[in-house]
Amino acid sequence: MLTLTSLLFLLFLYSCPSNGAQNALVSVPDFGANPTKLQMSIYVPTKLAASPAIILALHGCSGAGAGYYQQTKYASLADTNGFIVIFPSSPHDNNCWDVASTKTLTHEGGGDSNGLANMLRYTIQKYNADPKKIFVTGTSSGGMMTNVMAATYPDLIAAGSGYSGVAAGCLAGSPGSSPTTADPTCVDGKVHKSSEEWKQVVKDMYSAWNGSYPKMQVWHGTADTFVNYPNLVEEIKEWEGVFGVSFKGNQTGVPQSGYTQMVFGDGDKLVAYSAAGVGHTVPVHEAVDLKWFGIT
Ligand SMILES: *[C@@H]1O[C@H](CO)[C@@H](O)[C@H](O)[C@H]1NC(C)=O
Ligand SMILES: *[C@@H]1O[C@H](CO)[C@@H](O)[C@H](O)[C@H]1NC(C)=O
């Protein structure tokens, strides 16, 4: 029988993050215009850096911000490095991010990307964050949304790191963005475009923008049959087109055995990681992300 003491102990365990973070995740009910009713949670370390960086960390389908907070090390790394992490949740379409509608694929279009941008704006203002240190990362659906955020909000975001996702615009026009609602052509790896075509897809999401785009790092497992591996090539072509860079060389065993780091141009705008034999999804490499973002 469950005694009161053991019940309290279980509650205590449940409320303690397993990710080693000092503080709890805090819900932010009102962050401004929220056209698609997303949920915002934020991790603010006790020792916040002056003019801190912000990482927007996006869960996969059927996930939630609280789960991504638990499963990743971003929060405990925020304790040591003084940055803020936003862990939002998508409450719709099997808890996937909308990466398909015209609204979300348009700058200030009133879709999910717009709500996420408003979370960033709110956080920049409230915590006096450095507007040049705003980063986005995510896994699977969150990796897809990482590409979409980079394409729709190049004015806000400085760098992205997307795990096991697809190119921004790959699902354009699909009736949904989840395994049960999406047109499967994209995740099956059957949407192929040239670099020039992908570049136009990105430019069309914010046609008035004439500035630079966030530097991008993309990850994919060769054994991924859920969001098929050929999607890595399409992501690469997309950002090669945007940045005007091309393949320079491979570094095998980077960042670890079994992985290959593909470098494009001089490697400061675009790198890709191919993980041999890894399925869906590539484990999050927080330390590599922080380096890419220039936080460490
Ligand atoms: C870029 O856009 C800004 C703002 O719309 C404009 O003032 C500037 O002239 C544009 N620059 C170029 C090179 O087109
Ligand atoms: C670079 O690495 C990728 C992933 O392992 C591989 O597909 C590609 O053929 C390699 N390219 C060269 C030129 O070695």
From TrEMBL:
Give the UniProt keywords, A-Z: Carbohydrate metabolism, Glycoprotein, Hydrolase, Polysaccharide degradation, Secreted, Serine esterase, Signal
Q: What class of enzyme is it?
A: hydrolase
**Could you say which residues form the signal peptide?**
1-20
Q: What is its EC number?
A: 3.1.1.-
Chief location:
secreted
Reply yes or no: does the keyword Ribonucleoprotein apply: no
Q: Which GO terms describe its molecular function?
A: carboxylic ester hydrolase activity
Q: Which GO terms describe its cellular component?
A: extracellular region
- A GO BP annotation: xylan catabolic process
Compartments, as annotated in UniProt: Secreted
Record SUPFAM superfamilies? alpha/beta-Hydrolases
What highest taxon heads this organism's lineage? Answer: Eukaryota
The similarity comment for this entry is: Belongs to the carbohydrate esterase 1 (CE1) family.
Q: Could you tell me what this protein does?
A: Esterase involved in the hydrolysis of xylan, a major structural heterogeneous polysaccharide found in plant biomass representing the second most abundant polysaccharide in the biosphere, after cellulose.
Recorded protein name is Carboxylic ester hydrolase
